[in-house]
Amino acid sequence: MRLSGVKAFLVPMLAVFFLFGCCKEKSVDVVGDGHEYVDLGLPSGTLWATCNVGASSPEDVGDYFAWGETATKDIYDWKQYKFGILCTNVYKLTKYCNNPTCGYNGYVDNLTVLEPVDDAASANWGVGWRMPTAEEFDELHQNTTFVWTTQNGVEGRLLTGPNGNSIFLPATGFYLDDNLICTGLGIYWSSSLQTTSQVSAWSLHFDYENCHVCATYERSRGQVVRAVKNH
């Protein structure tokens, strides 16, 4: 009789558990292409991927790209850069240029944000995905907590949004020529051109002490990409 009483109590409780458990909202969602994203509760509603382009997990660094290029390569320098041509010992730009003194034969197109064809996230992950703009990186920085931590043996920053959801950005370093250097830093490309210097683009930069959005990184360097999609 005692066992029957326990069963009579447990069955309704299990039914309630499964009912409410199934209705619980997930913090991570998956789109049809198999890539996962997180809604961090940011003002713009921008959704952030859970891992880098070319990565198989949040801790995986993924692939390195020069700014405006969509494939990896062995050497990251101006000689190998897609949109640079050597002209009188100076490399001139052939795309994403609004200053004729920086453009090849005075070339200007006034493009300041990468087009989808030159966007590593769009080109590799498909429609709906893209690289974040400098403004979106700034929003991410201003509206999340950045905590330096180790996740599955990998150092990086855990970013937690206003709604309690989080993403992990591993420290990545960057490629200069064929050398991977500064591996204790996280340096992520945005899709935004640095319009003052033309030869640089905006990036999210962090280490164990600081985090900021800056534009001191030359376009020819190899850096990683974290994709976003619109809500």
Structure in words:
By secondary structure, this protein is an alpha+beta fold. It has one domain (27-229). 16% of the residues lie in helices and 32% in strands. It contains 3 helices and 14 strands. The chain has helices spanning 2-23, 120-125, 134-143; strands at 28-30, 36-39, 47-52, 84-87, 90-93, 145-151, 154-160, 166-170, 174-176, 179-181, 186-193, 200-206, 211-218, 226-229. It has a 4-stranded antiparallel beta sheet with strand order 1-2-3-14, with no helix packed on it. Strands 6-7-8 form a 3-stranded antiparallel beta sheet. Strands 11-12-13 form a 3-stranded antiparallel beta sheet. Strand 6 (145-151) and strand 7 (154-160) form a beta hairpin. Residues 1-26 have low confidence and may be disordered.
Features:
single chain, 231 residues, alpha+beta, 4-stranded antiparallel sheet, 3 helices, globular
Q: What is this entry, summarized?
A:
The protein has 3 helices and 14 strands. By secondary structure, it is α+β, with helices and mostly antiparallel strands.
Please tell me how large the radius of gyration is: 22 Å
| Count of runs of 4 or more consecutive helical residues | 3
Form type: globular
Order of helices and strands: HEEEEEHHEEEEEEEEE
Major sheet: order of its strands?
1-2-3-14
Question: Oligomerization state of this entry?
Answer: single chain
Q: State the share of residues found in helices, binned by percent.
A: 10-25%
Q: Return the structural class.
A: alpha+beta
